[in-house]
């Protein structure tokens, strides 16, 4: 008798003697919970995959941190100071590589259009130790930049400007020169010697020249300093307190999160928003549990009255219907979790199957920069979704169970 509430709750939940309509509503509530949980886990995994793909593409071209020079120096003083600062930074246990850079936002002009571009001067010999730019080269190589006033641009930028390797583009600098006819912006032709492609916004806004060419182009302007690669990309922002004393007022340390952090914060916010929206599906399934239990209480009024006359307490009656509701919900949660995990692992294969079946490319690489749907399953997401669905199911079952405990046996059995 100590476990009669559990026994009766499971019996009421899975008995074949219920009405067809009650059985149909019970199946609908379980199916709704299954689909809600499975879809939420799958979508979160796909969003994790896209975030990881985007992080890998964008941060492949971005050093882990910068030291931007804040003190104006002559060329000789800057060279000596840069060498001393590089040695100090390399002595830090978390710093793996350091190289000088020069950067400025300029205007590129091609045969068809103009485009604002972030022009970066890099040390050709050391760039591979700082970023993965060499791995994303479509045409040409970093060594081609040794030719004076040559440039490597992104594939999207090349399409916008209407140029190919071997063509010239005009660079217009945010500096002016005085002529007898007045003030004119400085400009120069650069030869395109290579194209890179990472499949992100960087393909249309970044361009690279050698450090020597950058110093000659940006002689009186631009940002100069050092690029830094650390042992852990995600820990780079936390190194600021330990690196700033080494800089000693000669510059400012800026981790990658200051320039790209807003994008990844937006991705996290998007993931949170989608999670809340899809949680609404689980919430609807939880309300179906309410409907199921309300009908079950109505059907079992006579049974409840008999149990009360046999000594069952109101708390015991509540636990019976709580057990019934939780059994139905947990069955849907477990099945949905299993299906969601399975889909998260094989979602790319499922998409490939439908592409072959329909004879169409759902994700065209020329449009989306991906050939397969990325997915990354995080067990923390699975646990969070399962816990949220279980809590909603418990909350949904409380009210019908409480109403069952309030049924008066005398009123039900008066005419029996």
Helix and strand arrangement:
Elements: H1 4-14, H2 20-58, E1 65-69, H3 75-90, E2 95-109, E3 114-122, E4 137-139, E5 150-154, H4 155-161, E6 168-179, E7 182-196, H5 202-205, E8 206-210, H6 211-217, E9 223-230, H7 240-247, E10 251-255, H8 256-299, H9 301-309, H10 314-358, H11 365-368, H12 379-405, H13 409-413
Parallel strand pairs: 3-8, 5-7
Antiparallel strand pairs: 1-9, 1-10, 2-3, 2-6, 2-9, 4-7, 5-8, 6-7
Helix pairs in contact: 1-10, 2-8, 2-10, 2-12, 8-10, 8-12, 10-12
Q: Any key phrases for this structure?
A:
416 residues; alpha+beta; 2 domains; 6-stranded mixed beta barrel; 13 helices; 54% helix
Short description:
The chain is of the alpha+beta class. It contains 13 helices and ten strands. This is Lipoprotein-releasing ABC transporter permease subunit.
Specify Rg, calculated over alpha carbons: 33 Å
State the helix count: 13
Written as H for each helix and E for each strand, in order along the chain, the element string is HHEHEEEEHEEHEHEHEHHHHHH
* Amount of helix: 40-55%
Secondary structure tally: strands: 10
The first-to-last residue Cα distance is: 26 Å
Query: How many domains is the backbone divided into?
Result: 2
Which word captures the global form?
elongated
Ranges where pLDDT stays below 50 over 5 or more residues in a row are none
Largest sheet features? 6 strands, mixed, barrel
Structural class: alpha+beta
Strand order of the largest sheet: 2-3-8-5-7-6
Strand content: 15-25%
| Mean model confidence by pLDDT | 80
């Amino acid at each position: 008798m100590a476990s009669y509430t559990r026994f009766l709750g499971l019996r009421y939940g899975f008995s074949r003697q219920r009405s067809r309509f009650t059985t149909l509503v019970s199946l609908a509530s379980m199916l709704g919970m299954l689909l809600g949980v499975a879809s939420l886990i799958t979508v979160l995994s796909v969003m994790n995959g896209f975030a990881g793909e985007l992080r890998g593409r964008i941060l492949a071209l971005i050093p882990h941190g910068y030291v931007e020079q804040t003190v104006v120096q002559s060329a000789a003083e800057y060279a000596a100071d840069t060498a001393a600062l590089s040695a100090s930074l390399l002595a830090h246990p978390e710093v793996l590589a350091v190289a000088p850079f020069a950067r400025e936002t300029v205007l590129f002009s091609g045969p068809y259009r103009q485009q604002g571009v972030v022009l970066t001067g890099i040390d050709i010999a050391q760039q591979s130790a700082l970023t993965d730019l060499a791995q994303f080269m479509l045409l040409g190589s970093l060594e081609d930049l040794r030719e004076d006033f040559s440039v490597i641009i992104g594939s999207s930028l090349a399409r916008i400007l209407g140029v190919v390797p071997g063509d010239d583009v005009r660079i217009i600098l945010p500096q002016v020169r005085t002529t007898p006819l007045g003030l004119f912006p400085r400009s120069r032709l650069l030869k395109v010697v290579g194209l890179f492609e990472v499949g992100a916004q960087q393909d249309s806004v970044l361009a690279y020249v050698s450090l020597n060419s950058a110093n000659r182009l940006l002689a009186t302007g631009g940002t100069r300093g050092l690029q830094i690669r650390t042992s852990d990309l995600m820990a780079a922002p936390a190194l600021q307190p330990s690196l700033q004393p080494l800089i000693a007022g000669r510059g400012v340390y800026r981790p990658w999160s200051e320039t790209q952090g807003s994008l990844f914060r937006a991705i996290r916010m998007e993931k949170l928003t989608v999670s809340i929206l899809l949680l609404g599906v689980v919430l609807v399934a939880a309300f179906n549990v309410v409907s199921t239990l309300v009908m079950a209480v109505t059907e079992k009024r006579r049974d409840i009255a008999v149990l009360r006359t046999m000594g069952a307490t109101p708390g015991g009656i509540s636990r019976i219907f709580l057990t019934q509701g939780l059994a139905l919900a947990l069955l849907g949660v477990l099945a949905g979790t299993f299906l969601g995990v399975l889909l998260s692992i094989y979602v790319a294969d499922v998409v490939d199957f439908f592409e072959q079946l329909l004879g169409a490319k759902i994700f065209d690489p020329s449009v989306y920069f991906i050939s397969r749907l990325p997915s990354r399953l995080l067990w923390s997401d699975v646990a969070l979704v399962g816990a949220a669905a279980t809590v909603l199911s418990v909350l949904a079952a409380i009210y019908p169970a409480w109403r069952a405990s309030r049924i008066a046996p005398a009123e039900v059995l008066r005419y029996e």
